[in-house]
Structure formats: structure tokens, C-alpha cells
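Sequence and fold:
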Amino acid sequence: MSYANKTTERKDHLYKILVIGDLGAGKTSIIKRYVHRFFTQHYRATIGVDFALKVLNWDDNTLIRLQLWDIAGQERYGNMTRVYYKEAVGAFIVFDVTRTNTFESVAKWKSDLDSKVQLSDGSPIPCVLLANKCDQQKEGLVNHPNKMDEYCKENGFTTWFETSAKDNINIDEAANALVAKILENDTLLNVDSLKDEDKFSISKEPSAQRNGKMCSC
């Protein structure tokens, strides 16, 4: 007895991810560590926006390409972020655990993000908060994980991670958490879209048929 090999069409996703936060929070370092697997202390400040591509073999049937947009820390004060944010499906907001003022800016970055980009159903795009440079002395709320959990829940973050680009702490884990949420949203939105199509199809039936009557002209 012989069995035909089952072949499943591999899904290929391209997702635009924003990496935002104050100047010097470590956004570029995180991206370099995640994409290129290296770290250096010597980075020039990003001007405007920079890009990187990360390819993930998520599972046997899913290939994911992440287009990471490294947005300059001062860009929230300009008018270009609406252009940069367009069509993004997920974001990281990064702050520096050694500088409390970068954490104080997080809510402003989140508000700016939510006001300028949404999913197709109008809901906010998933956003993961990164408490970066955790290899150094931490200041402020980040020293209290339970309070950080509450902060993220109140401000609409998917979750948060302490990260270190220098020591490669939780970079992959944070990215995987964001991708998992994006895939979940993708599935839900596709299901809702199919339901809407069914409703449209039903509503397009001839009125005589819906009333159980047939017209013989």
C-alpha cells in the first residue's frame, strides 16, 4: 500500500515593525544584535529612519520576513512619523533603564503610535515595551516587575521585557512574543474578513428569494 506525500503550501509573511523610543535608548543596538548578531559601543545616532530585514523560519510551514524600521529618537517631535508608521503591524518601544526620563517618555511614544497607525479593524497595533541596558544599574519603576506589569496593562502594551543588546538578553524572546501576537491578530482579522464576506454574500440574495417567493416574468 502506498501513500501520497502530503504537501502543504508554505506561507510567506512580510511584516513591518517599528522600533521607537528616546535618543540613546539602544534601538539601533537592539536591531544590530537581533539581525546581525553583534554589538558595538560605537554607533552614530540615527537620523530620520534606518531599515533592517530579519528572516525567520517560524515553523515548517511559515516563513516570516520582518522589516524593522529604526526611527530616530527625536522624530516624535516632527511630522514624518505618520509616514514612517504607515502599514506597520507591530512595534517595540525602547527605554534606557539607567535614565528614568526615557521611561517617562514611553507613554508619549505609545500615544503617538496609537494615534497614527491602527490595524484594519481600528484597534492598536501590538506593541512590546523593552527595558533596555538591564546589564547596568536600573532606576525607577523597572525595579518593581509587578508595577511594570500593571503599567503595561494600563497603557495597552502586549508585554514587556528587560533586554540587553550588549549581553544578548531577551532580544529573541521579545521579538518572538511580538511576532506571535502579530500572527494571532492576522488569524483573527482573516476570520473576521471571511465572516464579513459571508454576510455580504447573504445580503446580495434577491429579495424575492429571501421572502420565499419566486418571480415568473
User: Anything to note?
Assistant: The chain has one domain: 11-186. The chain is about 35% helix and 25% strand.
